[in-house]
Automatic annotation (TrEMBL), chains A, B:
Domain Acyl-CoA oxidase/dehydrogenase middle: 163-271
EC identifiers of the protein: 1.3.99.41
Name recorded for this polypeptide: 3-methylmercaptopropionyl-CoA dehydrogenase
Cited InterPro entries: Acyl-CoA_dh-like_C_dom (IPR025878), Acyl-CoA_Oxase/DH_mid-dom (IPR006091), Acyl-CoA_Oxase/DH_mid-dom_sf (IPR046373), AcylCo_DH-like_C (IPR036250), AcylCo_DH/oxidase_C (IPR009075), AcylCoA_DH/ox_N (IPR013786), AcylCoA_DH/ox_N_sf (IPR037069), AcylCoA_DH/oxidase_NM_dom_sf (IPR009100)
Residue intervals of the Acetyl-CoA dehydrogenase-like C-terminal domain: 467-590
Organism: Halomonas salipaludis
Stored Pfam families: Acyl-CoA_dh_1, Acyl-CoA_dh_C, Acyl-CoA_dh_M, Acyl-CoA_dh_N
Domain (Acyl-CoA dehydrogenase/oxidase C-terminal): residue spans on this chain: 282-450
Keyword line: FAD, Flavoprotein, Oxidoreductase
Amino acid sequence: MPDYQAPLRDLRFVMDEMFDFPSHYAALPGGDDASPDVVAAILEEGARFSREVLLPLNQSGDREGCLLEGGDVKAPKGFKQAYQQYVEGGWPSLSAEPEFGGQGLPHSLGMVLSEMICATNLAWGMYPGLSHGAADALRHHGSDAQKATYLTKLVEGVWTGTMCLTEPHCGTDLGLIKTRAVPTADGAFEITGTKIFISAGDHDLAENIVHLVLAKLPDAPQGSKGISLFVVPKYLPNEAGEPGERNGVVCGSLEHKMGIHGNATCVMNFDAAKGYLVGAPNKGLACMFTMMNVARIGVGIQGLGLTEASFQNSLGYARDRLQMRALSGPKAPEKAADPIIVHPDVRRMLLTQKAFAEGGRMLVLYTAQMVDVVEHGQDAAERERAETLLGLLTPIVKAFLTEVGFEATNEGVQVFGGHGFIQEWGMEQLVRDARITRLYEGTTGIQALDLLGRKVLMSQGETLKVFTKEIHKFCQAEADNPVLAEFIKPLAKLNAEWGELTMGVGMKAMQDREEVGAASVDYLMYSGYVTLAYLFARAAKHASAALEGDEHAFYQAKLDTARFYYQRLLPRTRAHAAMVQAGAGSLMAISADDFGLGFEI
Amino acid sequence: MPDYQAPLRDLRFVMDEMFDFPSHYAALPGGDDASPDVVAAILEEGARFSREVLLPLNQSGDREGCLLEGGDVKAPKGFKQAYQQYVEGGWPSLSAEPEFGGQGLPHSLGMVLSEMICATNLAWGMYPGLSHGAADALRHHGSDAQKATYLTKLVEGVWTGTMCLTEPHCGTDLGLIKTRAVPTADGAFEITGTKIFISAGDHDLAENIVHLVLAKLPDAPQGSKGISLFVVPKYLPNEAGEPGERNGVVCGSLEHKMGIHGNATCVMNFDAAKGYLVGAPNKGLACMFTMMNVARIGVGIQGLGLTEASFQNSLGYARDRLQMRALSGPKAPEKAADPIIVHPDVRRMLLTQKAFAEGGRMLVLYTAQMVDVVEHGQDAAERERAETLLGLLTPIVKAFLTEVGFEATNEGVQVFGGHGFIQEWGMEQLVRDARITRLYEGTTGIQALDLLGRKVLMSQGETLKVFTKEIHKFCQAEADNPVLAEFIKPLAKLNAEWGELTMGVGMKAMQDREEVGAASVDYLMYSGYVTLAYLFARAAKHASAALEGDEHAFYQAKLDTARFYYQRLLPRTRAHAAMVQAGAGSLMAISADDFGLGFEI
């Protein structure tokens, strides 16, 4: 059975040594509560909970799946009890605001815990995970009454939330939705329509479920400008605020999926369900983006968690499994064969996972600090800068970390050889679970358009410059540091090239908008590799400075991992840069009809 | 439900127009039987069989899986009937030798049909598929009596075969096997041991199963030099040659796997099972390689088949699914949104699959001609050349086509967005089924060592030169063809670089053998991309010459696909070349103990 230990030492390196979280927390309002001791205690308790409570339910949840019986969904055995422990432990309210019953700790702390949850039981983690987005939408756009009724319950965790966007005929293109909201005499609305792919749409973990639903008002403008957001509870709260009458929303069926079997992916039928408008009419999409940005970073963290899980388990296997002798001669002559970790290609697969896990963790925590500043920063200029950077990095966190997460989990399987394909070992589940992360909350293609089109080109490159300037400054500051030369030189070159590539696509896009879509995914991957290169250079700086201390081996391994990243992963930018520059021509040449001439008669 | 049409037009292009199969067949002994009419009829019938008989059983077989009941395995519903039709249609004997009841048609023809079978039902295809390797081993190494008893039945298809190599503690490293063979008074052997991952190890499709089993004789030398090959039938043939007494080999359990659920992956327990030595004592590994080379190309074809299946179905979806408007303005203004095939990134995903399918098909057929020549070629020098090239290309066919096949099936899922993750559409099954192809019959890492270590470096690069010289000649011959300049120039450059990279690794490997393993997988992928580049340049030559004819659209699409390959896939060689040159240093730096310092306490 798979094992997992939260990477507490690595977290300490990134949080304390690289990004000085203690000072960062101290500068936030109420930051005193997030003292180093408290943070350490929370992380340790999270490590224990994820390992001891969630991990044992991961494989059984995958095998068992969810059950729809008489209109009600049952999560796999043990999920409900684990959720109760989660609520009793106060986890849902950790980073919520005190005025709604939250503990007021920084959001970044919740993100760290989220990595542990995703690493041990992604399917389970999505039940509480979806509540964050729903709570955020209500916090930002809900009325005081809505906050009092729904937000406090979500924060407590006794109720959970969903995001009901997708319909059978549209996911990306929400302007096409057909779900209708008809006003009723009491100021509420009757919501009617079908939503699909609703994660945690129904289940038995919490006493009520708060659906945040996109629907169209009568006479709403066409397309995405005519979408409104509604809150639709499974049970209508009674006067005491407790679940009362059952509302007209039911799970019609459960999807049979490739992975995350333990999470209920529901078709939700709304049949004149009572709902309440959140925010202004026809401004639903903007409200929804509040949820989606939070959710997108959350999905990136899923990629990270699965990467770490895959890394740890394939490392264990590579140390134990005896097969062949090292090409340079026996390394364990006393054994029947050498452990496969002696083989360079096995090490390549392990290091690929390790580098993506450690690199992804740096990226998530770097972004997490910005989330804290955007939410609670005391300085307006800092807040604005953080918001800009967060906008730029969100699609990278989401798409890059899930793309490399899928690769990493596949490398994990590959280390196991044929055993990786067998369910018992738990490695193939990581691949199946990881596969959804490239799709939901906006596919990689959608994230790439968001990055290149909305964030970078729409700002005339200014958004990107905020980040490349930071990298440039770092490179300048370390230019004379001989220890870092192997990192700084290639990084400075890539950083400059990033700007040039952007300019190149921007110029072409002025002639032909399709050039944006043609370059976008390679541009996003390129951006991801350069971003991680920057963070690994910073890691190398801290590691090399600490080499002489007590923990030589840890810092040396960190430096070696950075070196591996630069030598064996960063060269992928060569391919992506060429493909960014290749243009739209070869993509657009063949007509839709002619695509199938090789097989269509 | 997924659909599939055999790519008959594309096959005609590759077989008739590019590689002149009519002349190739005419030059083989008995080649008159493989006249263009006969070949066309066989391909059409194969297309019908795979589409009408196999495809409808693919999803149901995946859902149902196999059943072990009372020691006997039942394949999913319909599999047995489909197999009966297959046998009645004479498919198993197609390319077998007439002296054993075969139809004597060229092997390459069987490989073409294999693509169709793998595209429509990989799990089913493995039942007859494994018989080929078993038959080949008997044909090359079996005694006349063994051939008479077993080979004819395998050729007829009334019995099927297996390859029993792997044991719980060893797969790659067969020198470690523990299965024992003890001679008995009648000249036979008692085989005792446990074999795992035995595909089609037990089932109800055929009346008997012929296991080819690796085991050790008493006092055999240690390691891989002490392995012998045995034939162990499920039922011992009686005097009439029909299945008689049950032998001591039973399926102990079925593996629960990520994919190919319809194929029975068995733990086979041999308990003093009666077996017969095949070939010389202690020479079993050499005999096994006969089976494995056939099987390895077969797995490459699996990658190809799944790629084509994924391409066709995602193409259909991309034409139908309406979502968003093209960035350059509406393309289907009469519809609610444009079909997603207008979006450049969707086209990138479709073209990636298309290029890998068409490129893979060229590679398989190019290799298939060599298989024919090796088996039946009339000229000794030609045979030797074909054998050399076949040795070089086999690991590329196996590993490259399965690596890109896995990528292609994932792109197929990605085109479907969230729907790709839902079982109903059948796309995620292609990914799960494809995942095993990177593992069995030798992982990608093992293929890469075979290519770089055994084939290329052990021959001092001579084996590679046979191929690069052919490419060089082609480039020289077309150097002044202005239409092909966009292909020939980069191809010639890559071809030269291929030699330089090889030399570079060879030099480093003289100092440190680990350099071979460090470079191997990137070297293999590099080799695969250059090989396909050569074949696409040849395709472009034929296509550009035929542009003015009746089928302009077909040839234009072929040329555009070649262009896409060169512009958008071939740049990946830049990354692989850099990583081949990166050396072993960064891979070997961290000790096995220090790998886990980020999480191990």
